[in-house]
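Title: Comparing notes on inverse folding

I've been comparing how different people in this forum approach sequence design from structure. To keep things fair, I'm posting one structure and asking everyone to reply with a full sequence. Here's the target:
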C-alpha cells in the first residue's frame, strides 16, 4: 500500500531522516507499520532536531516539500496566495499516486487537503481531526470549514474521520477515537502517592496563551498561601516563557514554581510518576495527551471543560474540572489536599481509565482502519 500523509507539521531533515514533533511521529509510526510506501506532503527544512522531535521509522519515504504558509495577518496572507497553486498541485499529485489518503486536521495543509480529496471519491481515506470536534465551541473559521467538509458525505466519500469524544447527531463517516502513548508492557502498579508531604503539580505543554500556563501558576500561587508544601513543575517552551518567568520573579514564587523547558519522553514519564496532579487550563484541546499520560501514572488531572475532557474525567469523578474562577478552583483543589481519601479515589479511577488506552489497542484499531 502506498500511503499519503497531508500534514501541517513542520519537519526537519537530518542525517537522511525526517524528524517532527514526537507525539505526532510516535502515532504515525504505528500507522506506517502497515504500509509499503509513504508519501509525505508537509513543510520541511534542514536542521538539528530538538529533545521533543523524533524521526519516522520507515525505509521507503517520498517526502514532497511544500512551503509553510498562514493567513494570520495581511503580509502572511499576501505571500500565501502565491504559494497556494504549488501546494494544491503537490497535494493533488500525492493523492493521485496514493492507495490510501490520510489527512491531519485541523491545520492549513489539512484545509487544502479537505478540498483536494473531493476529487478522489473512490480512494480509501482517513482523516485525523486532532482538535475540538464540539460544534458548540468557538473556533476559527477555517477549522469550521474543515469540519463541515469532513462530515459532508456528499463531498467526502470513502473516508473515516477520527474525532475525539462521542458527539450526538454525527454523519456516518465520523468515528469516535482516542490516542495513546504507553504500551501494555509499560503498565505498572502505580504506588500510592502521599499528599501529606511535598505535593507536586505538573504542567506540560507549550508556554503559549492558548494553553494558559499563567493560570496554572496562579493556582499554585494561591495554594501556597494555604499550604507551603506545594510546587509546580512546568515542562515546555514557548513565546510566553519570558513573561511567565518575570511573573514568578515579581511574585517571589521561585520556591513554588520551576521551569524545566522541553524534555524527552523518558524524563516526562519520570516526572508524571512522582507528581500528584497534572494541570492543563487550556482554552482548546482535542484529546489532551498530557492529561491522559498523567492519569496513566497516577496523577489526578486538573483541566478545563473543553472538547472531550469532561468525559475523560468522568465529569469530575476522575479529577477536577476547572471553572476558571481562581477562588473557586483553588478551594476545590485545597479540599482534596485536605482529604487523602478523596485524592486516593480519584487517583485510582484515573489510572484505571487511562491504562485501558494503550498503544496496543491503538495499533489494533489502526490496523482495522487500513484494512477496510
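Reply #1:
Here's my take.
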Amino acid at each position: 500500500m502506498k500511503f499519503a500523509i497531508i500534514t501541517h507539521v513542520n519537519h526537519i531533515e537530518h542525517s537522511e531522516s525526517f524528524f517532527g514533533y514526537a507525539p505526532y511521529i510516535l502515532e504515525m509510526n504505528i500507522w506506517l507499520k502497515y504500509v509499503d510506501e509513504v508519501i509525505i506532503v508537509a513543510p520541511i527544512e534542514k536542521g538539528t532536531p530538538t529533545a521533543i522531535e523524533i524521526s519516522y521509522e520507515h525505509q521507503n519515504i517520498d517526502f514532497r516539500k511544500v512551503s509553510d504558509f498562514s493567513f494570520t495577518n495581511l503580509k502572511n496572507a499576501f505571500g500565501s496566495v502565491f504559494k497556494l497553486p504549488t501546494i494544491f498541485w503537490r497535494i493533488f499529485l500525492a493523492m493521485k499516486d496514493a492507495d490510501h489518503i490520510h489527512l491531519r486536521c485541523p491545520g492549513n495543509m489539512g484545509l487544502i487537503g479537505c478540498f483536494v480529496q473531493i476529487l478522489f471519491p473512490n480512494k480509501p481515506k482517513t482523516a485525523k481531526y486532532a482538535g475540538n470536534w464540539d460544534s458548540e465551541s468557538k473556533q476559527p473559521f477555517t477549522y469550521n470549514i474543515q469540519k463541515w467538509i469532513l462530515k459532508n458525505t456528499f463531498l467526502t466519500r470513502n473516508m473515516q474521520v477520527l474525532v475525539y469524544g462521542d458527539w450526538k447527531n454525527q454523519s456516518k463517516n465520523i468515528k469516535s477515537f482516542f490516542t495513546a502513548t504507553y504500551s501494555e508492557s509499560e503498565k505498572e502498579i502505580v504506588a500510592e502517592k502521599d499528599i501529606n508531604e511535598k505535593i507536586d503539580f505538573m504542567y506540560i505543554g507549550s508556554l503559549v496563551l492558548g494553553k494558559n500556563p499563567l493560570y496554572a501558576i496562579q493556582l499554585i500561587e494561591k495554594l501556597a498561601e494555604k499550604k507551603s508544601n506545594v510546587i509546580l513543575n512546568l515542562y515546555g517552551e514557548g513565546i510566553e516563557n519570558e513573561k511567565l518567568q518575570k511573573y514568578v520573579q515579581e511574585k517571589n514564587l521561585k520556591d513554588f514554581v520551576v521551569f524545566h523547558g522541553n524534555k524527552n519522553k523518558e524524563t516526562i514519564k519520570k516526572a508524571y510518576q512522582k507528581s500528584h496532579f497534572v494541570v492543563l487550563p487550556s482554552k482548546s484541546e482535542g484529546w489532551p495527551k498530557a492529561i491522559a499520560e498523567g492519569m496513566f501514572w497516577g496523577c489526578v488531572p486538573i483541566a478545563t471543560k473543553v472538547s472531550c475532557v469532561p468525559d475523560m474525567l468522568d465529569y469530575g469523578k476522575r479529577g477536577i474540572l476547572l471553572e476558571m474562577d481562581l477562588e473557586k478552583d483553588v478551594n476545590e483543589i485545597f479540599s482534596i489536599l485536605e482529604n487523602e481519601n478523596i485524592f486516593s479515589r480519584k487517583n485510582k479511577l484515573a489510572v484505571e481509565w487511562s491504562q485501558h488506552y494503550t498503544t496496543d489497542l491503538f495499533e489494533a484499531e489502526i490496523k482495522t482502519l487500513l484494512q477496510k
